[in-house]
Predict the 3D structure of the following.
Amino acid sequence: MTLLQSLARNLPVSLMSKVASDPLRAALSGRAMSGMDVDEATALSVSTVYACANLISSSVAALPLHVYSKTGNGRQIAEDDSTMVIWGRPNPEVAKVTFWETAILHAVVTGNSFSWVKKGRGGAEELWPIDPSRVEVKRDDAGRKVYVLDGDPAKAFLDYFVGGTIFHVPNLGYDGLKGMSPIKLARESIALAIASERYGANTFRQGGMPRSVLSVDKVLKKEDIDLIAAEWEERYGGTANSGKPAILGMGTKWQQVSMNPEDAQMLETRRFQVNDIARWFRVPPEMVGGSVETGALTYANIEDRNLHFVTFTLQPWISRFEQTISDELLPPDRYARFDLRGLLRANSVTRASVYEKALNPLTGWMNRDEVRALEEMEPNGEDGARAVEGSNIPELVNAAGILIRSGFEPAAALSAVGLNPIKHLGLLPVTLQSPDKVEADAKAAANAGG
């Protein structure tokens, strides 16, 4: 038992319940000031919320997820049947990418991701996602963190880490029990987006006409008012009747009493809400149809923007899931990692420059097959040999000469700089041989070649 767990066990239950205090919860409850009700379902009907949630969850879930074991000099892949629930298929009904996409979506939208763990002999055997709306996280009378399903005290389960059956990944939290819901935190921003969208839809339903007043010179009964309003709606309401000339008689007057949507800058409000909601999810607004707040996107800076997205948007979610998977579902000598190389992949010019340095026979750290693997190409069986470009041979020969003059074996010196050993015939250098001998050797070589 860790020190933190020990302290938590010894805290009075009343004190621990106060940790989950109500000020923040009270501030986030009830209807938004715009009059809109905001929950996970209504929020996802807002295109920006859906785009942000989908972008984060699908981007992380699409990454390869591997299990590694720690070794004396690094790590190695440790993907066997006991860890297949992580690197393979989590349960018989869904593929790996579908499961993790759902789990991450729950965390992004509600602040918490819950999964039911089916245990096997080797540990976790299957993972099944649980709708977060079914789960209440609280402490029982003994101070233990429990997960109550469907409000039924008989369905109170413990965390898998302490021998239970619930795998829980929380977002940024306030009470130490669960994560806060981004939807509830951003409810005013989302409500304003819903309200402006409904206002625009209602405007188009009315044929784009502003609110107006029809006035007559005589007193009307309720039946007459209802009849005139219904007839006006039938004749001139809706987009199908837009542009029709209005025929007014019997002293009837039409008067505009409100600004049209453009005057009210409704479109500007909707544009602003895209950036505002994207800010809540830490998503670059241009990735969800918003506008760039500082300068325009160019080919030169788009790669930096993508790196910013990976570092500040995806990495916190990746770290949460990696650490929780490693701590709860794997033994101490193993850990899980998402492979980010696909997202961090540079453009072809940058990759070529990096590979050129990596393949340098003197200072490089990779061979051709390793580079081909990064480019998803089949190996050509070079067995670790680095590239030797023709333009580099003179300096490599010079480097080998320095090693030989320093006392190293010639063959070892050539191998160290990436050159193959050259067989020596035992003859003296040409400059030390007689002209007749050189001429005779040349004729002999020519005759042997013919």
